[in-house]
Amino acid sequence: MGGLAGAILGGLAGGAVGSLAGARMGEEIDARVLDNFECHACGHVFSLSDH
User: Could you identify which of 10, 19, 27, 50 might form a hypothetical disulfide with 46, taking C-beta atoms 3.0 to 4.6 angstroms apart as the criterion?
Assistant: First the structure.
């Protein structure tokens, strides 16, 4: 019974860490790779790496 509880808790902890890492990586991709910003004056779209 203790091994099963440990496996369940380990799975939950691993899932939480993986979720946080995935969210952080997604934010970095959004900010640096995708064209997420648009100039209100001319409509040009760009990312932070374009500056």
Answer: 50
Q: So where are the chain's domains?
A: 2-50
Q: How far apart are CA 39 and CA 44, in angstroms?
A: 5
The HSE-up count of residue 42 (CA atoms within 13 Å, CB side) is 3
**Tokens found for residue 47:** 């990312």
Say whether pTM exceeds 0.70: no
**Rounded to whole angstroms, what are the CA distances from 29 to 19, 35, 46?**
15, 10, 13
Q: How far apart are CA 10 and CA 2, in angstroms?
A: 12
